[in-house]
Amino acid sequence: MSTAKNTKNTAAQKAAKFSRLRQRAIDSGLVRGQDVKSAEDYVLGADLGFDPEIRVTAPSLEDMLVIQQAAQSGGAWDLALALFGYDDARRIVAVLDENLDGNAASQTLVGIVIDVTEHFYGPDALTTPEGFTSRL
User: Fold this and answer.
1) What is the pLDDT of residues 2-54, one digit of tens each?
2) What's the sign of the alpha-carbon dihedral 59, 61, 65, 71?
3) Domain boundaries in the chain?
């Protein structure tokens, strides 16, 4: 019985410490209050030529950091890779190449990247100076 109590105590202590650290970051003004604006999947479906559909789930912290780094590099391909993964990013490019000319395909890829990023992080997520998470 004492082992279970110690485990609960340890878990409660860890949760309290994480909560204090999080609040410290929020109070510092260096982080935004809420990072993920939507937990709903983002879907590119058959209506756009994606069969099977391409489904993106809400990003984890690790995903968010990779997406933020790709956004700071400024490359649509880097962002597409971070958001969709290699295989689905290639599928998107193939569908765009099949349906649009070069300029329109490139611009549409940027539009998709903006749309999925703003779906999860809100309007102007790619253009805010502090990025998705912080000013650090």
Assistant:
1) 555 556 679 999 999 999 998 998 888 777 655 667 889 999 999 999 999 99
2) positive
3) 1-30, 35-136
Q: How far apart are CA 116 and CA 136, in angstroms?
A: 24
Pure H helices in the chain:
2-28, 61-73, 76-84, 86-99, 102-121
User: How many Cβ atoms are within 10 Å of 42's Cβ, its own excluded?
Assistant: 19
Q: What is the pTM of this model?
A: 0.79
Determine the Cα–Cα distance for residues 95 and 8; give it in Å rounded to an integer: 51
> 108-132 pLDDT, tens per residue?
999 999 999 989 888 878 877 655 6
